[in-house]
Records
---
Amino acid sequence: MEVIKQGDVPSAEDWTIDVVCKKERATKGARGTNPGGGCKAVLKITVKDLVLMSWHGTHFPHYYSAFRCPNCGKYTEVTRVPIPIWKNLYATKEAIPDGFDDSV
Ligand SMILES: [Zn+2]
């Protein structure tokens, strides 16, 4: 496939997102070890602020992107990361275990 005209995917250098420090994962909710408790700061983060985090499911680890709040030091999941940025994060960063383990 060939891209004839670039779409609206931002380059990694230009990408930013406004996030709220919540210290939680949307998909894990209250089951996790990390439910709520962030300081609710509103932050604009860039690709440099993203970290790779992991939790252990029944049989294998799962990964997600997050940021660490500079105010309170807690991690919050970032869900709306463009796929190229996510792929680079996954390929290049060491995952930080978030402490949740559902293995049998
Ligand atoms: Zn915070």
---
Amino acid sequence: MNVAIIGSGPAGSHLAHTLATAGARVRLYDMHRGAWEKPCGGGITAKALRQFGFLLEEKTAEFPRQAISEIEILSPRGRAVTFPLADAPFRIFSRTNLNGLLLARAQATGADFIPRRVTAFAPDGDGWRIEADGDIWRADFLVGADGCTSGTRRQLVGRLPDEDQAMCCGYYISAPGTPRAVVAFPKDFSGYVWAFPRPDHVSYGIINQCGEYPLPELWKELDRFVRWHLGGELPKDRVKYAARVPMLRKKSWKTNRVSGANWALVGDAAGFVDPITGEGIYYALQSAHLLGEALTRHAPATYDRLWRKEFEADLTEASRRLPKFYRGSMLGAPVIDRVLQLSGKHGGVVDIMSQALAGDVDYVTMKGRVLTSMLKPANWFGKKLEVRQIQSWAS
Ligand SMILES: Cc1cc2nc3c(=O)[nH]c(=O)nc-3n(C[C@H](O)[C@H](O)[C@H](O)COP(=O)(O)OP(=O)(O)OC[C@H]3O[C@@H](n4cnc5c(N)ncnc54)[C@H](O)[C@@H]3O)c2cc1C
């Protein structure tokens, strides 16, 4: 089978590796000449590292990544708690390194990397005619792995509406790697700000549901945070970026069509991102894995069932909880404020937060798990964390 994959991000490269290993003839197209610094935090949770163990083990010297041992969380009211991650590895990659690692794996198994933009595709018998800057190829199966603004999606099912996307902007700032990441929640804001250290620079960024605040407001909020974090002015040599990421509303999951008889979408092109955390690398790899499984069994139609069974309910529940998480209150305070305050009083809250930071929160069963953890006598005396009050960057 000839498979054309448009996009060599995590989803496209991982799928290319899986299919080429199974003996398919794979062409992996990207408009960039190779791995590139796609705007991203590059944070990979313990859950993702467990499932895709090669990310932790392979080519660490060639494609370095930063080990993170603690994440500091700041609330809208200036509470700060540092959560240790000792038992749950968390890594931050520059995207050039992550994409490079995945592309090298795909090429090593025989996938053909074509550094060209796919400019057109059209049905051709029971397959596709793919055109990439003048180069023509015939594929039996077409995969759109071309990210949040996917042209493949636009042509086959229509673009993701703005209401199903988040806006991000940020900076890369040179600095030596440290093992501490920071995540901060501004007041009345559906999203968050981050400082994710990598081996030789920090990825700063802000994510916000599209349409809630205009882009200049996001830059202002981010600048306040970066100045606070650096304890000084913004460096002149900072590198700016802006990009979108899927953030599907609850109602959009059911109608989200991501496959047909001889085509499929994976990763961001399919809308597969946790709407609360913005975690998308895991879902890019996982959807590639599931489509790879379906195609290897010559049963492409099963892909729809596979992804829905694997994570539709969970991500739908995340979309349902999103407004309450960011803008709701708990016992009279913003949710994240209250959670941080309780981390200083109850080991059960620390336990749940540690699971969340490891990517192990299952939104469907979360309420029950929180209650069980809160009521477990061992947790009343379990590890509590220091809650500090800081001069908030947002004030
Ligand atoms: C600012 C920001 C921060 C983020 N931080 C995190 C994080 O810390 N952790 C996390 O898990 N997720 C994060 N995400 C989400 C994550 O970046 C995405 O979910 C992930 O990159 C999706 O992978 P993908 O392979 O589906 O798409 P992408 O990585 O977007 O790759 C798509 C590829 O398609 C190529 N392409 C597009 N059109 C064409 C064409 N016509 N022809 C050829 N090639 C084409 C592009 O060049 C690109 O290489 C973040 C996103 C943003 C925007």
